[in-house]
């Protein structure tokens, strides 16, 4: 085989693995593929119960790793390309993937290796993706491409459909009126083309233009309102993460009242603020349009530059 590809994913519902398969359709038969599923030692539930779901927020946002099951690869094994499939949790990188990237084995695999990241989520991925870029830079990887696939339903609709999916396991046609909570079907149609672009770059040994080509295929779309929403949201999450974790660690009884408060506060604020923000947002976007345009241009590009997005969030 001419090329060795490692496909690393964490996926609770299988969506991220389905994206990986769609991307790989664009690769030639001269690629040997190896698959690794990240597995926490203590599995997260799916569907989630409400308590566990919101209780997962603080340590995710505070970037605290968890123990993982060992990965079945030989020590020091290297690949020509890593495809890394992940999802944002609470505007941060989910803990299983974060833990992999911070592990000795993860760091050794990532070091000096070209990495293409892809994610599937509801619609809020920008801050988490900046963290992903940072982790890859810290691991010494060559981040050569990034893809973000989302659900295109209006914000409140996708909030309902993602909660139905995550908390009840109902993905399609919820209550007979709500659309799918998963990524838009159109992404599965464009994925093989994105895969082809990655494969061509791999064969040429030239990653220079890959991200521009992926963008031309619709790999990342940023709306100005998303940037504004994420900045506010990530600040709130940091506050609540510190407030809840001050009472104890994940799963501890001592912090349950604060977790319950947060689990009501978050959807309530989204529902309450969405109409108000929708009214005010055009003005805010108009006033900040140059800054937002500059940020959007930077966010879809590589590499990571500390402080380019949301400097008041010290982690970015
Ligand atoms: C705990 C948790 C937090 C999530 N937070 C976000 C988020 O901040 N932004 C977002 O767009 N989607 C969020 N999602 C949705 C996921 O990113 C993703 O769509 C889902 O996990 C399906 O992918 P998978 O089955 O491959 O894991 C969250 C899901 C979970 C379980």
Helices, strands, pairings?
Layout: E1 3-9, H1 15-24, E2 31-37, H2 50-55, H3 57-61, E3 81-86, E4 88-89, E5 92-93, H4 95-102, H5 104-110, E6 114-120, H6 126-138, E7 142-149, H7 155-168, H8 185-204, H9 210-216, H10 224-245, H11 256-287, H12 289-299
Parallel strand pairs: 1-2, 1-3, 3-6, 6-7
Antiparallel strand pairs: 4-5
Helix pairs in contact: 1-8, 4-5, 10-11
The protein binds flavin mononucleotide (FMN).
Flavin mononucleotide is lined by residues 11-13, 15-16, 53, 56, 87-91, 120-125, 162, 166.
Name the descriptors.
7 strands, 316 residues, alpha/beta, five-stranded parallel beta sheet, binds flavin mononucleotide, two-stranded antiparallel ribbon, Rossmann fold
Please provide a written account of the structure.
The longest helix is centred in the C-terminal third of the chain and has 32 residues, at 256-287. The model has no long low-confidence stretch (mean pLDDT 94). Helix 10 (224-245) runs antiparallel to helix 11 (256-287). The chain starts with a strand and ends in a 17-residue tail after the last helix. It has a 5-stranded parallel sheet with strand order 2-1-3-6-7, with helices on both faces. Strands 4-5 form a two-stranded antiparallel sheet. A hairpin with a 2-residue loop joins strand 4 (88-89) and strand 5. 49% of the residues lie in helices and 12% in strands. It is of the alpha/beta class. The radius of gyration is 19 Å and the shape is globular. The chain is built from 12 helices and 7 strands. The chain has a single domain (3-299), classed as Flavodoxin domain (Rossmann fold, 3-Layer(aba) Sandwich). It has helices at 15-24, 50-55, 57-61, 95-102, 104-110, 126-138, 155-168, 185-204, 210-216, 224-245, 256-287, 289-299, and strands spanning 3-9, 31-37, 81-86, 88-89, 92-93, 114-120, 142-149. Flavin mononucleotide binds next to helix 1, strand 4 and helix 7.
